[in-house]
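Structure tokens please, single chain.
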Amino acid sequence: MRVVIQRVSRASVEVENQVIGEIGKGLMILVGIENADGQEDIDWLCKKVCGLRIFDDEEGVMNKSLIEIGGGILAISQFTLHARTKKGNRPSYINAAKPEMSIPLYESFLLALEKESGKKPQRGKFGAEMQVSLVNDGPVTITIDSKNKE
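Here you go.
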């Protein structure tokens, strides 16, 4: 699994001109699922995401986690995170999992985030054309890949 995490002061997602998910201060997470992903990837990523100390403490130092600040989560499925651009100019998405595999894993990811954070994540609509709006706070943007645990 590959995620792009953005620390936000607010974020929302619309489908067909209707807001279906929104948060204030917290994390907006783009989630890419590939064919080799499973529950182990989900568990590791959720623990890592919720424990990241990327929110300011009283001295203005990034030293607090999402859980410590009681922040919200907006998680959006995005298969394009697994784009391969090595050949030519048209990205290949061959490594991105098909919906029959990625939908259950995305749902499991949301449940694991809720369990780890204690808050129900807001979400996009899988496979829909979505408009995502956010105010990146910092800016702080971090990418994490469960297959490359750096």
